[in-house]
């Protein structure tokens, strides 16, 4: 069971949207819902708002050859060294260390920031921060304004100005402090911890991040709880003291201003070439030049491409086309939308067909 790749089953978590996720998966119904905007693909992380009915909200399941579905964390617990890799287990235990999502923004996301590991440890008592990156798959064509993102404060930002607008609950004023950047399919952006950001309406992206669900959103706590309950009415949220809530929010944001040219240079990937052969090419989307916590690549394949073995597990998402994964004398058919988990113990595998695949790596096995 451990020497084969497994298909991952998505779970939609929260937020208004989901039509583009349904289209990507070629689902029978393609529609937006109140809780369809985030589909968590590869996760051992429980999302905020878990309920008695769904205590593992956000956690991925995998499909075994007999058709049974298991939570990924349960499978990992049976043989973590073979599944994740010994080096990964020594550093991270049985946790993936990363979290992979599809995000489909029907409406603008709330302005937010995520803590560094230091801030997460001090103010949340949690080991992971939340650096992340976005790889744009598509943009909607029926939005009022061209799809874009808010990313980074513009020059002139001060903590005092930010705190003043937060305490007035001036959301538009807070957004005006940030750079707005138009995006197109194929763009990849790295979002450092502490940096303000928000997906704009119409963006459909892959998100790769550290394995946490810690977010600071500069609106009153009760407003945030009500906002989240609209998409998950049964969700359980435990309020914290308002002083701690504000401290977490003000300490999470880093008050550094950038011009738009500076923020693009700092965050947008140049997709450097890793390898090129008769079968196609593999480019680096995000690597160690940006972060120590994860990496991802994109393979464009026409033929048969060997999958590089690293010091840890790998996860693949087919973004275009179809084909098959060949491993240990067996094959697994794949098509657009399929997420595949490759245990560490699979030493040799190839991907065949005409397809595009994005590959994700934890810190223990990346580029």
Total number of helices: 10
- The beta-strand count equals 19
Low-confidence stretches: none
Helix-strand topology string = EEHEEEHHHEHEEHHEEEEHHHEEEEEEE
What's the rounded overall pLDDT mean?
Answer: 94
Brief summary:
The chain is an alpha+beta fold and 367 residues long. The chain contains ten helices and 19 strands.
Please render the helix and strand layout as text.
Elements lengths: L5 E4 L1 E2 L6 H6 L13 E5 L18 E3 L5 E3 H7 L1 H5 L1 H7 L5 E7 L12 H8 L7 E8 L8 E6 L5 H9 L3 H5 L2 E5 L5 E4 L5 E3 L3 E8 L10 H11 L10 H11 L7 H8 L4 E6 L2 E7 L7 E13 L7 E14 L2 E6 L3 E4 L6 E14 L5
Antiparallel strand pairs: 1-4, 1-18, 2-3, 3-6, 4-5, 6-12, 7-10, 7-12, 8-9, 8-11, 13-14, 14-15, 15-19, 16-17, 16-18, 16-19
Structure notes:
The longest helix has 11 residues, at 221-231. Helix content is 21%, strand content 33%. Strand 16 (314-327) and strand 17 form a beta hairpin. The chain is an alpha+beta fold and 367 residues long. The strands form three sheets. Strands 1, 4, 5, 13, 14, 15, 16, 17, 18 and 19 form a ten-stranded antiparallel β-sheet that branches. A six-stranded antiparallel β-sheet has the order 2-3-6-12-7-10. The mean pLDDT is 94.
List key phrases describing it.
19 strands, ten-stranded antiparallel beta sheet, 367 residues, six-stranded antiparallel beta sheet, 21% helix, 33% strand, globular
